[in-house]
Hints:
Elements: E1 9-11, E2 27-33, E3 36-46, E4 52-57, E5 63-67, H1 70-74, H2 78-81, E6 85-88, E7 96-101, E8 104-111, E9 114-117, E10 120-121, H3 124-135, E11 136-138, E12 141-143, E13 153-159, E14 162-169, E15 174-179, E16 185-188, H4 190-196
Antiparallel strand pairs: 1-5, 2-3, 3-4, 4-5, 6-11, 7-8, 7-13, 8-9, 9-10, 12-16, 13-14, 14-15, 15-16
Amino acid sequence: RNDGAIGWIVFNNPQKHNLFQVDSTGTMVTVYEKGALKASFILGKSGPTFSDSYARLVSSNDVALVGGGFSYTFNRPLKEWRDRTIFSLPKENIKAVEFQFGDTTFTLAFQDSTWKIGKDSADASTVDGLLSSLSKFEADEFIDSIPSPLPKMTAQITVGDAQIRFHELKEPAKFFIQSSALPQWFEVQPWRANQVL
């Protein structure tokens, strides 16, 4: 069909590929399944509505109008594809958090249906804020080369089997963070780090 319906061939003229950005100006998408090439297509500009785009299989001159908002899905910076998660655990599964600040160490633990530090009860709203932030603790940026010299470790949080190490840089203010669960280093803004510290 040639009426512009979603999923149907819109045109088959190679001279118009540049008009719809299904040439070298588009986004090349290659799909693999278990290491085997399944499809390769060029995603072009948005279609008549926000939720559709023009696309062309690399092996064809046929250009189709496809639905699903593909332009936004594929045209993102590299860091948007990466997982920013430093630590993730449902709030209800966190039963203890150990804090270490230099020589000072203490544990926040759920005991006898209340959160305590030692024998003292902890402030419920402060604990709830901490658990909310810690249950889905995410980075602001990725660090692919370890800064040298690495600032001294200023704090460590232990939750379950994971240790999260905080290295504070004063100027410009930010934290370099690494979890024992993975080798990736992350950068976190002070306000976000302070939510869990």
